[in-house]
Design a protein that fits this description.
The protein contains 8 helices and 9 strands. With 258 residues, the chain is an alpha/beta fold. It has a 7-stranded parallel beta sheet, with helices on both faces. The relative contact order is 0.14.
């Protein structure tokens, strides 16, 4: 039987690009999103048949919702070979504004709790089989904080730490945990950013490199590699220099500015 990949946030951007890359590699698809009608239209446009793909409706910000979708997948398609927790949100926040605390709660609900809930139902079946890959989509924004991005940067730093912890837990069971850190990828999530985005990469090119990293058994990968170099250099900068470099930098749109 053809291998199976389970992808959250598959209705657009990185998730959709990854779905197409895995389809072209011969994988069956299990695609998850709230906007399932968009996935259906996309499948028809790409001429992908229902025999090789199933769509699951779920809200990753609600653990019971994504866990139910995972169980449906197990019952209908079997144990995936690859699970990609891609669904995520990025909203600017200002801690001085009371309502933005809810923005942070929502961001963590999707980007962190949602990721753990996505993986949860698949771990025991993968352990029993002795193989599988759990892929967490993090971000270079998780390597060092950016003004106005407190919720997003903190959530993605959490993803990096969480995946590293999970990797140590599951290695002996034959399950590979992969952390993918995208730089700036041309998707609906980034197209309204009001600041420069160095080394901006098309989603299709990103998906190809991510696919290769996952299939090769990598544990951690920054894509594109140039952003990995930039992120490491920024990490080494003394705080005083780093803070001055970012002073006055445009910030991410807040909810009221959407």
């Amino acid at each position: 039987m053809e291998k199976l990949v389970f992808i959250t946030g598959a209705s657009s951007g990185i998730g959709q690009a990854l779905a197409l890359r895995y389809h072209r590699a011969g994988f069956r698809l299990a695609l998850v999103a709230r906007r399932t009608e968009i996935i259906q239209s996309w499948l028809e446009a790409e001429n992908i048949s229902g025999d090789s793909c199933k769509i699951y409706n779920a809200d990753v910000g609600q653990p019971e919702s994504i866990q139910a979708a995972a169980i449906q997948c197990l019952n209908q398609q079997g144990v995936p070979d690859v699970v990609i927790a891609n669904a995520g949100i990025s909203i600017g926040m200002d801690t001085a504004i009371a309502s933005d605390i809810q923005v942070m709660a929502q961001t963590f609900a999707v980007n962190n709790i949602g990721m753990a809930a996505t993986f949860q139902a698949f771990i025991r079946p993968m352990e029993q089989r002795g193989s599988g890959a759990l892929v967490g989509i993090a971000s270079v924004a998780g390597i060092r904080g950016l003004p106005g991005h407190g919720a997003y940067c903190a959530s993605k730093a959490g993803v990096i730490g969480y995946c590293e912890s999970l990797r140590g837990e599951l290695r002996a069971a034959g399950i590979n945990v992969v952390t993918i850190c995208p730089g700036y990828i041309d998707t609906p999530l980034t197209q309204r950013n009001r600041y420069g985005m160095p080394f901006l990469m098309q989603a299709e090119a990103f998906a190809d490199k991510a696919f290769n990293a996952i299939q090769s058994g990598a544990s951690y990968k920054v894509i594109p590699w140039q952003m990995g170099f930039v992120a490491k250099a920024m990490r080494l900068l003394p705080n005083g220099i780093y803070d001055k470099l970012l002073q006055g930098r445009p910030r991410k749109h807040r909810v009221s500015e959407e």
